[in-house]
């Protein structure tokens, strides 16, 4: 497999191509950021349980019946089942894949702010903060990844000579599950590179009079490290290492990091509070009932369940970005894809959002770091998921940079929005009936290569000069309001002082970090189901 953009090496460290073999060295704490004799080591280990997949062959296998020339390296011209009847387009698939969606701007999230995308003429951007998700990847090893489970079911039935598929599933007779695990795929490399290029054109001028090397941060997982490298290549070019440092923070249960806070909040992985997964399984029994019966008629040797059919829908997403092409995409109707999106909404709102009792707590660490940067204050607490040793070190946590970029996972973006009380996304989602007008949509908030961007600017209004801030999610301008400490305005601007003072007063207190992350249900708080505000109320003793 050819490495994207004909890359051979990068001065930041050897680039791991999605097809290259990689190992996960044992933890060597003398080789991580903050402890190594080298200030910014990249070979810190802790890459995660990586596994590499088969090489794509789209030129041979693509059989989409279309005369149009693809505008993408991956095949996204599929339309849902019964597309003509339902007036459906390919967007009804590829913009409804939840957190597995290829990157696209969230231009339909807040249509009322689209007219205010341009920076007001009286304003000048002075500082930018970017929280960037990794690009497209193979499935993880998580239990909610049904795609590999379906692949195993077909493999076992075939091995036992019991498998046969007909009709629209006939392709399964020669199909093999060929995906890897965890690793950034080529589509993800492109998404990250493009994100870096976009950021360069938007914000490179901020570095014109900045003589120091920027410090960017990522975690040690393979896809995270590669994401940072491709982004930096897009922004800085081949001499990226001459212009910026990359701090690689250990993603390991033995070291805090705000960019992967689940290790620092044990209750976030407590199955008792995993409401997202529970709601997802319930919803699948509803919206996939008909599809399960329909597809079972064309398959022998595998007893389909709603969960396995959900895995087939996942395969549309993962095969598209991993192999460039998937026959699973046209198997489902427009409504089924819309309900699949809602499935992912339930998962993320229930695991990391306003409906999870630790939602605020999981994002509080990064929110605190963000506020420290906004106020130019060295870390002094309160401690949540921050690595206090690193955050107190100006080498790794510098202040007054004109541009900050942190690379992270989708859950951190969701929980950071909760921590800072973006109630614009606080929809309480019922299990049985999706609200088509809901704002909370994982496909809009955290597609692959999602980016949460804060622009700090100086504006002249009414003969007075003041500092303002505005928030963008995947290029959509979020209209801030009183819940973020802001006066509601059509242009999304908020006085910086109002925003920071409100967050400093409320964010940490409202997160109730200690109880939410370490407390015991029934002793420290009472939770009987999904919550509305992303936290718990401590019991008084």
Under CATH at level 1, the class stands as: Alpha Beta
Q: For the record, give the distance between the C-alpha atoms at the N and C termini, rounded to a whole number.
A: 62 Å
The name of the CATH topology is Rossmann fold
CATH superfamily: Phosphoglycerate mutase-like
The topology string of helices and strands comes to HHHEHEHEHHEHHEHHHHEHHEEEEHH
Arithmetic mean of pLDDT? 92
The CATH architecture can be named as: 3-Layer(aba) Sandwich
The chain-level structural class is alpha+beta
As a percent range, the share of strand residues is 5-15%
Count of individual helical segments: 17
**How would a crystallographer describe the biggest sheet?**
6 strands, mixed
Rg value: 23 Å
Q: Return residue spans where pLDDT drops below 50 for at least 5 consecutive residues.
A: 1-25
**Helix amount:** 25-40%
Number of separate domains: 1
Count the E strands: 10
Q: What gross morphology would you assign? A: globular
